[in-house]
Write a structure and sequence with these properties.
There is one protein chain. This protein has 171 residues and is mainly beta. It has one helix and 13 strands, in the order βββαββββββββββ. A hairpin with a 4-residue loop joins strand 2 (20-21) and strand 3 (26-28). The longest helix is centred in the N-terminal third of the chain and has 5 residues, at 31-35.
Length: 171
């Protein structure tokens, strides 16, 4: 699963300083955090034990509507309208958690021949590591995570694992 992106949901943006901007319905993240959440990325919001940011509900799923610089807006559905942020929350440990990347693999003669990304996931600050569990390097069983192409889009990846020592781990 991608790591949670943590921010201070009680920090009201005034004159460009702060995180939650009620006037333009944005939440300011760090550059690394914003890069991990492209437009239409699905995420789960959590108020971190404090009260929720006005307009959001802790535990609900949202989508990135816009991502400009380090400021994001949210919608309740993919491509939906921007959610009206009506107030800051309390607490400094609010989080966005993206979706887990998943894939399937093609196995022939006991060897993995290809990986097909079924969900690219979101919220990753670096590409996920491919992990095969329930087998051994000579007899892998189940694929857990996936790869992304240079553009960040999911790739169907033929497996030249011999050329990438350490790219695959077994457990």
């Amino acid at each position: 699963a991608p790591p949670a992106i943590t921010f201070d949901g009680s920090d009201d943006e005034v004159a460009g300083t702060g995180i939650v901007n009620i006037a333009d319905n944005t939440i300011k993240l760090t550059s690394t955090q914003a890069t991990a959440l492209p437009v239409n990325a699905q995420l789960t919001y959590n108020s971190g034990g404090g009260t929720s940011i006005g307009g959001l509900t802790s535990g609900n799923t949202y989508f990135i509507k816009t991502n400009t610089g380090t400021e994001v807006t949210l919608s309740a559905t993919s491509g939906g309208t921007v959610i009206d942020i009506t107030g800051v929350g309390t607490g400094t440990s609010h989080t966005f958690t993206g979706t887990t990347a998943t894939a399937t693999c093609t196995v022939s003669g006991g060897a993995i021949n290809a990986i097909t990304v079924t969900n690219a996931g979101s919220g990753y600050s670096s590409p996920p590591v491919v992990t095969v569990s329930g087998g051994s390097p000579s007899s892998p069983a189940v694929l857990i995570a996936v790869c992304r192409g240079a553009s960040g889009e999911p790739d169907d990846v033929p497996l030249p694992f011999g050329g990438f020592p350490g790219a695959v781990t077994y457990s």
